[in-house]
Amino acid sequence: MAINELRAIANFAKAAELGSLRQAAAAQGITPQASSQLLVQLESHLGVRLFHRTTRSLSLTEEGRQFLASAQPGLATLQQAVQGARRGREEMAGPLRIVAPRSILLEVIWPVLDEFCRRHPLVEPDVQLDDRIGNWVEDRVDVGFRSGYPPEGGVVARRLLTLQLIVCAAPSYIARHGAPASIDDLAQHRCSGFRHASTGKPMPWEFQVGDDIVARTIHPTFCTNDIEVEARAVLGGHAVGQLVGPTAAPLVRSGQLVPLLPQHVAQHLALYVYYGSRTALPARVRAFIDLAVEMVANNPAYLLTPKELATHGHAVQKKPRARKSTQ
After folding, report:
1. Nearest alpha carbon to residue 166 among 282, 275, 262
2. How far apart are CA 159 and CA 162, in angstroms?
């Protein structure tokens, strides 16, 4: 019969400490029969008798005393390890490894990090920015964020926020080049491009057309792999860009950018927070997840309503369609 050595040795040590198998069973939350069976299995496994016992008394044999003396230091070390792990789970201190896409950190994740550090100064965030999809186990991730589609691979994922894809331009660009009136018109405009983290190729723009999501290849006149650089290029009037809602929304509301083609804003992507388990999460991990949900989930600051898209879009001055630049 297979034996759980650690459990059997712990049962033996507890019985020796309390002088009773019945009390040892109660202390461990098991039945007296289970405690007695564990002792029998251990003695059979070792090939020695550990206790002299009757129905009323229990005393160690010489072999039992020697075995207890050898086992107690190891049991004490294990007990300290268990207590340390429990403290680590309960304390609001220690490392917190976070992985987030570079393209979404500043606008969305940084406010959460900033507030979390104020509330829990003993926690030590370790933030890895990467737009690629990594292996959360190999990367030792406590909390991850993913934009696009929900992550796979046995993690728990929670949808936080719809990511609108908004075509927009600076008023200065529109004053010089006019504004596209249709998706096809974009071919006649200077457009920005965002390079895919894995392939290095410019990502297609995606549009809502009726009930479908339609992807269009854009030939960018300004291309980058950094969302902040792309936003600056659009703000500077150098290109029309398709930006995610958290980046575009505050700039549209402040009048720095104008939304274009509002009827084609795609909303099929989302921002997700993910982690490894619903249970046994360290307190610092659970607290960070809860704060992210509190501050980000469906936050209207990161979304433009249809009314806002239409209202701000009226600022576009109708001008002749711009010809594609040769510069």
Report:
1. 262
2. 8
